[in-house]
Amino acid sequence: MISDSMNQTLTEAALRAQNVFVYYGSTLAVRDVTLDIPKNKITAFIGPSGCGKSTILRCFNRTNDLISGARVEGKITFHGRDLYAKGVDPVEVRRRIGMVFQKPNPFPKSIYENIAFGARINGYQGNMDELVEQSLRSAAIWDEVKDKLKESGLSLSGGQQQRLCIARAIAIEPEIILMDEPCSALDPISTLKVEELMQQLKERYTIVIVTHNMQQASRVSDKTAFFNAEATDKGGKVGYLVEYDDTSTIFSNPKQEYTRDYVSGRFG
Question: Which of 21, 26, 29, 114 is most enclosed, with most CB atoms within 10 A?
């Protein structure tokens, strides 16, 4: 388990990756990634397909553990505690570091139960009605669903479903919210609502977002990590971190030529 005393460790970096390599079976997928994720900021991962953005994101809450043959080498710490150390419960890691996926995936349950279900499983003992309302308000969807809490979460529009999934993640009281392409399946208006929501949420949560949309990264994030991939002798690709800096620097004055080429649209 992760000790609650970790909450009291006030460091700028909520997450820290040090020399992280990720393998699927004997295949190296991502090599030698080192970066710090600052607390209460939005960090964006950008780069072409197959460069390891989502793979590294999934390392942060150990959802790669669910993929057969996946292996992580190096060190990933959460407030200084090694997430892969012996005795650390990956289920507890996923509670403290929540995930919102590319495609909205509400449970086939009522809107109310979408929020209450996870909290109940995690042993929540408080007022469930209050938690449901608070979570839906935090995800900026309460006013749209307050009169139909007994209706299926699947009855909502795509953008509403994604905000419901964000509310579901919030309900189990994480410290960090990981978002893997959360807007790629949404229309522009719904995308804008989710982006506005992220700006509100970073006051209370640390957010890491994977996005193919460079305009989105430049709009919403404080820090940006640019990943790329290189071909291997066996015909595959290995992802690696090219550059990591303040978002304004990455998009206006990057240090690496590959970064300049990518953000200017020359490849990707």
Answer: 114
**Residue 268 token pair:** 């990707």
Structural contact between residues 20 and 94, judged by C-beta atoms closer than 8 angstroms: no
Residue pointed to by tokens 């979460």: 153
Which amino acid does the sequence have at 203? E
Q: Using CA atoms, how far apart are residues 99 and 133, in angstroms rounded to an integer?
A: 20
Q: How far apart are CA 191 and CA 157, in angstroms?
A: 12
pLDDT at 157 over 90: yes
Extract the tokens encoding 76: 């990933």
- As a whole number of angstroms, the distance between CA 175 and CA 218 comes to 23
**Does 1 have pLDDT greater than 80?**
no
Say how many C-beta atoms besides its own lie within 10 A of residue 24's C-beta: 15
> In this structure, what are the phi and psi dihedrals at residue 100, rounded to the nearest 5 degrees?
-120, 125
Distance CA 96, CA 105 (A): 19
Structural domains of the chain in order of their starting residue, each with its CATH number = 4-107+174-263 (3.40.50.300)
CA 8, CA 257: separation in Å to the nearest integer? 40
Q: Is residue 208 a contact partner of residue 60, using CB atoms and an 8 Å limit?
A: yes
Chain-centroid distance, C-alpha 32: 20
The pTM for the full model equals 0.91
Which pair of tokens denotes residue 33?
């990634």
Question: What is the sign of the dihedral through the CA atoms of 160, 162, 163 and 168?
Answer: positive
What is the β-pairing status of strands 13-24 and 27-38? antiparallel
